[in-house]
């Protein structure tokens, strides 16, 4: 039997996240009261993680707390906004206080790292499902959108692609073989890239005024870039040799690693376009932030994505990330 909802919320979620002076009233009343800054727009997003759809049964609670917030932070980052306030709705099949404590640890650490206050929530009984809503702020009319790419713009991605998909494949294989044996450094790295994604929050804000369009990569580069291009009424040429691949992914998948980088999901990196005359400003951003930014292609007026390998156009049918469906 659940201890009362308010007891548990008080215990695990009341002081979770960063303290913020623009929270007039946080958890404990019927609704939170916030003071958005003058001259800013609110950026709002929500994402749910459902057991068996977005994570495997028995996934570590700490990872779930981290990922539930990280996927939302990534959307706010893709808008060039600063994350501020979060709401958490948690459906739990049974009360497990150790699970709640680990979940709160994972969520809280990431929230504090990004200055996010948890200002409200709801706890109920049901199939395990975690829904986070996140609000950010961005100076009026300066948000990054998907529809600003123009022919001739250079296309970039942050970080390395495909690691999380390989990590998920590893977790599924472990589940099939009933248990995790000893794991190599490569396996541990890939698994961590799935369980603890790094949303590119500072990078997104630094790209305001530099990137012409931006999207975060949740469903795989091929599909997500397609969405950006469609919104911008453009196409692109992509160089498969340019795709940023980790040493771990190369050692795991060999010459097929680029396919995982194109179609694998859950990367939570940023993909963005930059007008050629702003690429020097981008180099300064990369140097300042320490983020790896890789040019992967060029926006063009013909629709669709032309994939180039060894200077030839190649055919590729992406099986975009299937969220565990076969
Ligand atoms: Mg997104």
Give an account of the 3D structure.
With 326 residues, this protein is of the alpha+beta class. It is 34% helix and 25% strand. Helix 4 (163-176) packs across helix 5 (185-195) and helix 5 (185-195) packs across helix 8. The structure holds magnesium ion. Magnesium ion binds next to helix 2.
How would you summarize this macromolecular structure in one to three sentences?
Helix content is 34%, strand content 25%. It is built from 10 helices and 13 strands. Bound molecules: magnesium ion (MG).
Would you identify the regions where 5 or more consecutive residues have pLDDT less than 50? Answer: 320-326
- Note the gap between the termini: 36 Å
Q: Nearest-angstrom radius of gyration?
A: 20 Å
Order of helices and strands: HEEEHEHEEEHHHEHEHHEHEEE
Describe the biggest sheet? 7 strands, mixed
Strands, count: 13
Shape: globular
What is the spatial order of strands in the main beta sheet? 8-10-7-11-9-12-13
The assigned structural class equals: alpha+beta
Please work out how many helical segments DSSP would assign.
10
Mean pLDDT comes to 93
The hetero molecules present are: magnesium ion
Helix content: 25-40%
Instruction: Tell me the β content.
Output: 25-35%
